[in-house]
Amino acid sequence: MNTIREPVVQRVAGWSARHRKTAVFGWLLLVAVAVVIGQRAGTSHVNSYDPGQAGKAERVLNESVVKQPDGESVLIQARSGQTLANDAQMREAVQRVVATLRAVPRSATGIRSPFTSPGLEKGRSALVTFDVAGDPGKDDQTVVPAMNAIAAIHVPGVTIGEAGGATLDRAIGNSTSQDFHKAELTSVPISLALLLIVFGALIAAGIPLLLAGTAVISAISLMAIPGRWLPVDSTTSSIVLLVGMAVGIDYSLFYLRRVREERTAGRTTRDALHIAAGTSGRAILVSGLTVMISLAGLFLTGVDVFSGVAVGTIIVVGVAVLGSLTFLPGLLSMLGKWTDRGRVPFLGKRRTAARESRFWGLLARTVVRRPLAWGGAATVALLALAAPMLSLHLESPGIHDLPSNVPVVRTLTDIYQVFPGGPEPAEVVVTGNDLGGPQVASAVRAISHFASANGAIREPITTQMFGNNQVLVVNVPLAGNGTDTTSNNALSTLRTSVLPPTLGKVPGIDYAVGGLTAGNHDFNTQLTSRIPWVFAFVLGFAFLLLMTTFRSVYIPALSICLNLLSVGAAYGLMVLIFQDGRLQGPLGFTAYGGITPWMPLFMFVLLFGLSMDYHVFILSRIRELRLRGLPAREAVTSGISHSAGVVTSAAAIMVAVFSIFATLSIFEFKVFGVAMSAAILIDATIVRGVLLPAGLALIGDRAWSRRKLGGGRHGVSSPRPDPDYVRA
């Protein structure tokens, strides 16, 4: 008699269950080895560069060992009723600021004031600019003494405030660090509390956190290896933490819920683990591959920082999948019935039974009876939510990323209004021969002829020579606030109309335009050009993987359409809330009329991957029941009633975690948290509860493969086949 060979997933899980000590302690040893590897590899900093000319300028400055200092500005303004002309108080304020900066040791160089440079005074305002002394990478040690000294100056009738690249970076860094620390401290207790509600037992609730935590620790440690040639920073680690916790908890929920369900049906722990491996384990493998494919789409952006994020998140998902297929069955086999110990009063007995969901079952049966009406209504609702996406305007937040009540933000806003382009000018990085010669000097003077008080190019235009006269930086203030349309138009004027007839005519030199405006513009342009390729890659490979898994073209087509609907609805809500400025008061932000350019792409990649976790899990359960002989519609309702509950629980945890980001101070974090929470909530309710059963009911038997379940390559091998196992 021929023995049917079990799928690899079941064989791996079966080995882990039989050799549970080896599987559990081997996993913990693997985590320890990963930590040691990370420590031995050390922390190496690889610079990330913007694409285009801005990235070229950054590389020249870094590769030439040019440590260009950060620029700071001190804004001096007369209060109401004061004027600059013949105002002794204003002059006294300027003199005291200059004297104070000169007196602070090793903090300020290149001090320029209205007395030494034209264009630094306008009506009731004056500007003192200086460069932060010392290593630009250690601004905290140099700019803080200057900040404290400036803050101590008090002149009657005059307001004095400092802002610039160093102070803004310091404010953003402090806010980001505090925000992520808050998110990390809050997410674990919230996840544990919700897991206790879901499982009703302390030990069962701790298992998902254990898997997710060890997967994250391993992945962050292993990131030290690719971190030697890819940019990996604290933001990447935080994203890895977020993704790792999401998939680790999801996979544990799927596996543990199925084991409980089989044990409730009377099976032993060993048999329950065997069935869970062939069902939930297989779904986890497919889900993990889909998530990794989605995240791999970030490589196609050609942006350095996205490549680092892609590597880190792919590693953590891969480690989570490996742990789900080895460590998890070994641990569950070791614990046995102890998994349900530590029951929560009033919840424990009910939750540990792992019964089907009456609500989702009733909803699914209602939908499949009238799929066109229910599916049509849900589709119209999501399309209505997605409609504002048509007015999506991509624009970098700039200083709007921080709350308006931060002092440096208020000062920068005032500076931009009075002295546009002053704090963050365009940097024309020039290399070549004889940079100090008459031809280059003549070209720089010609650039100055384009400058005017109200034009695209502003004053004052300054130059700095670095690297033994090998690199010349021409600072050109631009109109606008540095990130808006006015600044981008001014940048275009500089690149296409000003530089070609000036520096472009000097033989033997090369130049590239960098700076804040150029960096944002080139980054956004690169993303915009690559978005179609990323979408095509993610959707194409997801289609192929789902088609191979479910042996159908209808399933992947339906899956992709449903995911695009939920993503589109999230985009629409993002535009309504953050671009149009709704809910500014409750969420604590000030809308600036745009959305961060990288947000839609990153959200698509992450949402598509995470939503496929739920989608594949439900579809696998429906397919399992269909192949056991249930009619198509009955398989849909039964599959959803048995799986939608755990999907809703997993989604609730993710919504709670992502919602934490809505409470943080950085604007981009708020957008990310609200949009992700809304998208996951929509996906786990309207999409999976209404649109999925409606779509499958309309497709009918055409959606499923004709193969019979019998333990073959795509089947589920049960140790004790039982016709009563399937309950309609």
The strand count comes to 9
- What is the first-to-last residue Cα distance? 33 Å
The average pLDDT value, as a whole number, equals 81
Question: What is the alpha-carbon Rg in Å?
Answer: 30 Å
CATH architecture of the largest domain: Up-down Bundle
Which fold name corresponds to the CATH topology of the largest domain?
Multidrug efflux transporter AcrB transmembrane fold
CATH class of the largest domain: Mainly Alpha
CATH H level of the largest domain: which superfamily? Multidrug efflux transporter AcrB transmembrane domain
Biggest pleated sheet: 5 strands, antiparallel
Estimate percent helicity: 55-70%
Low-pLDDT sequence parts: 708-728
The general outline is elongated
- Helical/strand content category: alpha+beta
What descriptors fit this protein?
728 residues; Multidrug efflux transporter AcrB transmembrane fold; Alpha-Beta Plaits; 23 helices
List the helices and strands and how they pair.
Layout (H helix, E strand, L loop, with lengths): L7 H11 L1 H22 L10 H12 L7 E8 L9 H16 L4 E5 L8 E2 L2 E8 L6 H13 L6 E7 H35 L2 H21 L11 H31 L4 H28 L7 H22 L1 H9 L12 H5 L5 H12 L1 H16 L20 H12 L7 E7 L5 H12 L12 E5 L4 E6 L8 H14 L10 E6 L1 H35 L3 H26 L4 H4 L10 H30 L4 H30 L5 H33 L29
Antiparallel strand pairs: 1-4, 1-5, 2-4, 3-4, 6-8, 6-9, 7-8
